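Reading a protein record of the kind used here takes only a little practice. The record below shows the convention in full:
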Amino acid sequence: MTETSDPGNASKLEDSERAAEFPLADTAGREPSLVSHVRASHGPGLTESIARLVEPFGGWTALASPGERIAVKINLLRGAPPEKAVSTHPETLRCVLRALKAAGAEPFVADSPGGRNGPAKVARAYKISGIAQVCTDEGVQIVDVEDDRITLDAPDARLYRSFPVGRAFVDADAMIQVGVLKTHQLMRLTGGVKLTFGCITGLSKAQLHVRAQKREDFADMLLDIHLALRPRFTIIDGIIAMEGQGPGSGTPRELGSLFAAHDAVALDVALAERTAHAPRSVYTIAASARRDLVDLGDPYRLAGDPVEADTGFKPVARDMQALLPPSLHRAARNLITARPRLVDVAACTKCGDCAGICGASAISLHPTPVFDDHLCVRCYACTEVCPTAAIDNVVPRAARLFGARG
């Protein structure tokens, strides 16, 4: 990591960085991408903190032009209040929307939550998260992408050459992502690259989980989607992050950090460092390194406040899969890999969201969920969407004997 001591000088680079939008070239001979980090809190000073966050990139007028229609892609995993850190914090979103409007742009807000997304469910998620009220206050449209999708071609992708995405994301003049820093039971961290997965509509996300069952393949697929859509800019809110069993059932943790970058891969490395993750342990970062999209020896130039590792940050629990060669993963899956289970019967509302999102049809309701381990692909999407954390991952006894934690 290289520090930029003068953010003003860094801002002179915004024209070339904005034109590139995302560095797709080999890292050889290329200067590391710029990542901005500021310490902040949700409160009266948040507007100023976000302004300082984007200043190294030339400010908001360098990120959006008058008349541009900007898709503000949020994280709306499911309906949960802001203090749970499940979805994008509404006050952070408010600051971004006001700044884009002040720059003359026309922002709208969109995302595809996990699972079966009827209009009532999506509306409820926006309401509970506080995002609906912010959009009403700011006069900004919420676009429902579930029933208006388009096939996005990805000719340079490693795994799949097309993806079903919300049309609004493709038709917009640009996309700016505003997400929340969370752990992730499959990829280890939700950052800028993983955030783009929410452009895939409805149950298509579950189908991709089934198609790309290996974690390395799923990470490559996420990277393919991200590179095909190429968000112009990404902001990740780690003021209140999520640790533990994220992205839906973890524990809120105060980090007091905001991050931003054009290059979400470089940004994700900074997130890993802030949360005391070895960058290569995050599957999307490892995939990016394999594809020469980031040099982990010198991954980014830093503007703003130092990135200090929070060594007390609790990562997602790991099973023994990472200790075995990929050729043995499927054969030993039931012995070594954490499996989803109903761990709190009293908390289960029998809503059926877990069965609805399961692309492998491994969950049936009797009336609470029952799991078929032979069909389950261990994507953990059911744990993500469970509204009461009644479902969690349980480590097989054999794996616990060797010290695995999940």
In short: The CA atoms of residues 109 and 142 lie 5 Å apart. The chain is about 30% helix and 20% strand. Confidence is low (pLDDT under 50) at residues 5-26. The chain has two domains: 2-304, 320-401.
